[in-house]
């Protein structure tokens, strides 16, 4: 009888303990899944000048508001300069100067034959097709991502363009996979669901531009599910 009582006693203790362990495992699995999903979906974050940034990520480093364009398409002209003073002296009223990757970059927006004086020409990205809007906002970002990193699945209300500084990337949209390496450019039209994947073996660095209707946000999460074209 004593043995039976002892077994019963430990059985009573073990039951809530098993429940507690089961709940702990379930919570840990749910948390791990949430964390993995968050880490697997990189989004571009706003930063202020002088702010300490993580080593990897996508950072919105400059914003130019209330832009007006005469045509429904625009080109992004990129040049580098020896110093910030020279770039500031050369830029137009809507030009954007940033310092990233140990270089001074000037971005100008206009027609393909836009004249930009001074500096070293790097790339002309476009044409970027603009949706109708009263005014536009240009958001310039700098991204540093590792092989295997992915953006969240998202869309922008305006065109997006990239200039690849180093590394490789693959952009998946419903139309398929589009790949680019260092020195290349890439564009995607407005309102297209997409997911960006970093491919190859090098850390990828790039300049990124989104031009959107000033009355809308830069981008939103998309419910589209990529079939995995960038893995093929």
Characteristics of this structure?
232 residues; alpha+beta; six-stranded mixed β-sheet; four-stranded antiparallel β-sheet; 19% helix; 42% strand; disordered N terminus
Would you kindly provide a written description of the structure presented here, covering whatever features stand out?
The chain has 232 residues and is of the alpha+beta class. Helices cover 19% and strands 42% of the residues. The protein contains two helices and 15 strands. The strands form four sheets. It has a six-stranded mixed beta sheet with strand order 1-2-7-14-9-12, with no helix packed on it. The longest helix is centred in the first third of the chain and has 38 residues. It is globular.
